[in-house]
Amino acid sequence: MYYRAKILALNNGRAYHLAAILRRNGDVVKVGENTSKTHPRFKRQYPDGSWSSHMHAEMNVLRFAQAGDELEVIRFKKCGHFRTMAKPCSLCMDEIRKAGIKKVSYTNWDGEWETIRV
Ligand SMILES: [Zn+2]
Q: What are the start-end ranges of the H helices in 54-112?
């Protein structure tokens, strides 16, 4: 499971390698990676005025989310063997709340899991 997430994330062609796993009653519903693909729903403006609609891994799977689902976000370092900080950004947290996700787990700087009750 995490192997598949890792392969997806490491082959995304981006500087950051993130994978998000959407779970429902413990079952995996969808695995997503961050991509440079754009999605109009997630368009946003940076403080410097430039626009971006790059999809974060979380947003990639939130399209499939139902209320009560759980989300896991993992970030892999370039070499692929270590996990690092993957806490969802505030924009993703907004979408996570809107989607009705009840629990978010993410890897911290030490590669350990941390949990947010949404
Ligand atoms: Zn984000």
A: 57-62, 90-99
> Nearest-CA neighbor of 70 among 104, 108, 39, 36?
104
pLDDT at 51: 53
What domains appear along the chain, each with residue ranges and CATH number? 2-117 (3.40.140.10)
CA distances from 1 to 14, 15, 33, 112 (A): 21, 22, 13, 17
Tokens of 112: 């350990």
Distance of CA 10 from the midpoint of ligand 1 (Å): 17
pLDDT digits (tens, 9 = 90+) for 65-78: 999 999 999 999 87
> What is the pLDDT confidence band of residue 108, given thresholds at 50, 70 and 90?
very high
Q: Please give the pLDDT value at position 100.
A: 97
Task: Name 98's Cβ contacts closer than 8 Å, sequence gap at least 6.
Answer: none
CA of 71 relative to ligand 1 center, distance in Å: 13
* DSSP label at residue 111: S
